[in-house]
Amino acid sequence: MDQRAGPGGRPSLPSLVLHQGRRLLRTLREVFYGFTGFEFERQAAHSRADLENLFTFMIMGELVGVPVLPPYYAVRLVPYLVNTVPAWRRRVLRERHPFEHEEFDLHGV
Amino acid sequence: MNNTLVAIVIGIVAIFVGYNFYARRIDRLVIQADPKRATPAKMYMDGVDFMPTSRNVLYGYHFKSIAAAGPIVGAITAAALWGWFPSLVWLVLGVMFMGWASDYSAIALSVRNDGNSLSAIAHKLIHPRTRQVLFVFIFFYLLLVAGAFGTLVATTLNNPIVPLGIIALGVFGMLAGQLLYRAKLDLILVTLIAVGGTLLAVLLNASATGAVATAFKNFNAWLNGFAPPKGALITVLDPTRPAGQQDVAITVSLVFWLLFMFAFCYLGAILPIWRYAQPVNYIGFWITALTVVVAGLGAILAFWIKPGGHDVSTFTIPTFVGFGGPTKVLAVSGAIQPLWPMLFVTIACGAISGWHALIGSVGTARQIESEEDMLPVGGGAMFSEFTLGLLSLLAVSVAVTTAGTTSTAVAIGRFADGIAGFLNVFGISKVYGSAIARAAFVVIVITVTQLLFRIMRVTLAEWLGDRAPIFRNQHVGTLISMAATTLLVVSGTWIYIWQLFGASNQLMASLSLLVVTVWLVATHRNATYAALPTVFMYVTTMAATLVTGYNLWVTIFTKQLGKAGHEIAVVGSFLTVAIAALLFVAALLIAVDGVRAIRRYRRQPIATAPEPGRVTA
Could you give the CA distance from residue B485 to residue B490 in angstroms, rounded to a whole number? Predict the structure, then answer.
């Protein structure tokens, strides 16, 4: 049985208030994170993706006519890339808007 | 009726009714948001561009992205021209029936179209040339914004009680970037150092008789000594000033602070985003957010709390100036400011904004976790931005500074005075309150302006880079953008530049709503909620562009042409007329293509599901 439940199985008023209070607090915390830390998280993700693109390009460059690494080393590294290939393909081949890379800084005008 | 509390209550009711009884209805019946349908964030999740994110986080992020100087400046200017009542009515009706619809629909459109941007969808749905025309449109739109904001920043920095805080913002921004990304320091610690340091600099410069302000005053006077008398380099005409004061001098010190702003923005446009632009924006966010939140609370409490016996809740400006604006003042130059269409472009972002649609479709839409989040994020953020416009209107309406003109310095002074009154409710001295308000104002404008130049060079490269590769050079692109902006700032009349910007911004909103309308028609849904605002905003903004063109023409030929000292102003006015004409033609082209597309899709039969077992090509 729910420890918060009051008479009749329904949650008691204090527990309901506490529950709603916690929910509100969590919402506020998330909104605050959206205001502050989220853009840094996105920036970090973008930087990582750029590096991953570069790494994938080094390994797969041969496919597009730019042999960066000797094939021997490229073949040895291919297994590490397999999981990321679908996302990489989408990211690289997707049609892009010129502002895309600036989007987290396009503050309203 | 004419006090802050009533206006706030009206605002809250507007948000409640607009969101719950209109926006939700459209979301449910027209767009038919379905939590079971996979969003692009889920389908293409890559942890970078496509990433399902909590609606609360995304709301905060999206609101921060769309809220800036637009709603503040628009409300200040419109209140001075037509009075507080029409400004309030337009803010309320605009956001209730159009603003949320534009922002929300752009996100919904992108979510339902694989997370593609608005221009890519326009390319597909309307016409291939739409995308190219949109880039030309966007570049000149950005140029107008940069011109309008550049004047505001330079004018405010020319006031000796402001510069130190902005210099500190640049220095601490650079420092914060290094501490965060190179030294890997904790975000909270960096925030305390950077925001605390910048705020301290603002307060050190607050007193007009203090050592820092006196030093800046002497510096400005020294600069102006190079062009006697009074440092006037060029003279421009401002038709909104009282008779006899319409010739406005562009001084050496003003040009200096404009160049300072360019140096500030150059770093933002050229350096990697993490090194400068992003931390500067982050510090700026804290300063403006603290000011806005405390002042907003002050505006509510001002009805009951009268600091020192002074009433800061009653409006001091006229309720309604007239349908023609301040006609006696305007008659001197022959300019006109009819309430329709000019009010609807003077207040842009707080009511409806096209820029939001671009941002929403490029970034936010790709992080929507569930279709049910589209309304709270897109619509909710727009309703929240409306409150920023409302607060600015309240601030400028209760200010006790001398009223009467829309000149930039006076308008900013009134805004700062009003915010200082609200902060005074909490015991913050008016001297510090006014300094904080001015600093917050410049911060919010300059952080936008630095990014404008960044986007302008990107747009320029996209638009002309294939024909002339030199435009792909980031330094060339930035310098060209800055040179064009300089010409606008030193030669143009601010009110016209602002209204042209407003017109282009609203035009972009109607273009985004047009794309949404075409999509709704193509998918055989009721497009009325998007089509009606499209038509209203389209007609209004085209008319406003014509009125601004007329005003420029009248001002050039009757007042400035052939007059000594006004030569550059004449060139600037011609440039502004040319931009107005270009925007007009670009919008016309997109509209013609849009109407053709609507007709095309209307003729198409409703696609039916294939019969079971039947193979279709």
Answer: 9
Residue B269: which residues within 8 A CB-CB, separation 6 or more?
Answer: B277, B450, B451, B453, B454, B457, B474, B478
Q: Amino acid letter at B544?
A: A
Q: Is the Cβ–Cβ distance between B325 and B338 less than 8 Å?
A: yes
- Chain A hits for B362, CB-CB cut-off 8 Å, are 97, 99-100, 103, 106
Number of alpha helices (DSSP H) and beta strands (DSSP E) in chain A = 4, 0
Q: Say yes or no: B276 contacts chain A, CB-CB below 8 A.
A: no
Report the predicted TM-score, pTM, of the whole model to 2 decimal places. Answer: 0.89
Nearest Cα residue to B156 out of B464, B509, B449: B449
Signed CA dihedral, B220, B222, B223, B228: sign only: positive
Nearest CA in chain A to B142: A109
The answer to whether the bond into B228 is cis (omega within 30° of 0) is: no
- For residue range B268-288, what is the model confidence (pLDDT) as tens digits? 888 888 888 888 988 998 998
Chain B residue with CA closest to A83: the answer is B46
Distance from CA of A45 to the nearest CA of B (A): 5
List the 30-89 stretch of A: residues with Cβ below 8 A of B.
Answer: 30-40, 43, 45-49, 87
Contacts of B299 (CB under 8 A, 6+ apart): B4, B8, B313, B391, B394, B395, B422
Chain A residues inside the 8 Å CB shell of B358:
99, 106
What is the residue-averaged pLDDT of chain B?
88
Compare all CA atoms of chain B with the CA of A37 and give the residue at the minimum distance: B187
Is B185 near chain A, with CB under 8 Å? no
H-assigned helices in B238-312: 252-270, 277-301
Q: Do B44 and A95 make contact, defined as CB atoms within 8 angstroms? A: no
Closest residue in A to B376 (Cα) is: A31
- Asked whether B494 and B408 are in contact (CB, 8 A), the reply is yes
**Binned average pLDDT, 10 residues per bin, chain B of 617 residues:** 88 96 96 95 86 94 85 88 94 96 95 88 84 80 88 91 94 93 91 96 93 96 84 78 78 93 91 86 90 93 84 88 86 87 91 86 89 96 93 87 60 87 91 92 88 84 85 90 88 83 88 92 94 94 91 79 78 83 86 90 70 47
What is the rounded distance in angstroms from the CA atom of residue B149 to the CA atom of residue B379? 26
Closest A-chain CA to B50: A91
Q: How far is CA B524 from CA B120, B535, B598, B606, B607, in A?
A: 21, 19, 11, 7, 9
Q: What is the pLDDT of residue B615?
A: 44
User: For residue A69, what are the β-bridge partners?
Assistant: none
Residues of B in contact with A31 (CB under 8 A): 56-57, 59-60
Using a CB-CB distance cutoff of 8 angstroms, which residues of chain A are in contact with residue B369? Answer: none
**CB of B454 less than 8 A from some CB of A:** yes
Burial of B582 (0-12, 13-18, 19+ CB in 10 A): middle
For residue B559 the two structure tokens come to 């007042």
Please name the amino acid found at residue B325: G
B238 — phi, psi (to 5°)?
-115, 105
pLDDT of residue B579: 86
Domain parsing of chain A, residue ranges: 1-36, 39-105
Give the span between the Cα atoms of B284 and B202, in whole angstroms.
12
Amino acid at B283: I
